[in-house]
Design a protein that fits this description.
Layout: H1 3-32, H2 37-58, H3 72-95, H4 97-103, H5 105-109, H6 121-145, H7 147-157, H8 172-189, H9 193-211, H10 228-234, H11 239-242, H12 252-257, H13 281-286, H14 291-298
Helix pairs in contact: 1-2, 1-9, 2-9, 3-4, 3-8, 6-7, 6-8, 6-9
Length: 305
Amino acid sequence: MSKVAAAVKAALAYLSWPLVFFSGLTGAYFAFANEQPLAAFSAVYAAAVILLFLLERIIPYEQRWLEADGETANDIAHTVLTKGLVQLAALSAAIFPMLAAGLLQPLAAMQFRLWPSSWPMILQATLAVIIAEFGLYWAHRIAHERLFFWRFHALHHSVTRLWVINTGRFHVIDSLFKIALSQIPLYLLGAPLQVFWWLGAVTAFIGILTHCNVDMRTGPFDFVFSTPRLHRWHHSKDLREGNTNYGENVVLFDQLFGTYFNPDRPSSTDIGIKGQIAPGFVSQLTQPFTKDGVRQILGLKPKRG
């Protein structure tokens, strides 16, 4: 490799995280001002995914993660048909107050209208990220510490490589649980629609960044945001490493509750679970609902008779 190529790759390693994150949020700003905000945001998000896909081939963190694992179709299906539809349903509840009132009548009656709508949107969005993060942190931590929820969350951890495409590999029950704990408090406080949009934007860009296979040097960002370095530790097979860094967007509550983990060495590439996830998309959705399926997820032999 020439000195110029090495210098370019080194620069990309330091610049790629802030480039994708902050340019993505800048694109979201213009998208939300568009007449078709969600369609415009989708285009911005797609551009960020393509950029990370290219960076994975220029400066990969782990070379072997570029090899196909046979799960690409399932990853896309989970992203589009489960996580995507659940997110769309949650957004619909925010966009259409009457729909939300019809489906969540008790909650609609409990809205307290305490949201600081007069604040600049950047402060409202920051507040929303912190409030939602408290629910996201505990939903994620509970999913690791309680078997009932782990049976659904294990699907996400079953991957043996991290790359931008398996960002949305979540079971629908797992996604619903996280949305309930993170978005209902904002709904009760009376947060406006644009706050939900900005929360979704931050979560979307952090999500693809934490799962990408790009050799990013995130430095001080590791103390504030959930970064690829921190999230690779979270996917480690070693539970002493894996049961850490639960933060979805920021690591504030990991710092507060003692689950922050960032040792001074390269983060783990030995990822996955000791159990086995069913091979097909539909089977992956139904597996947690059967006793034998749960035993497979836990790596236990099926019961005889």
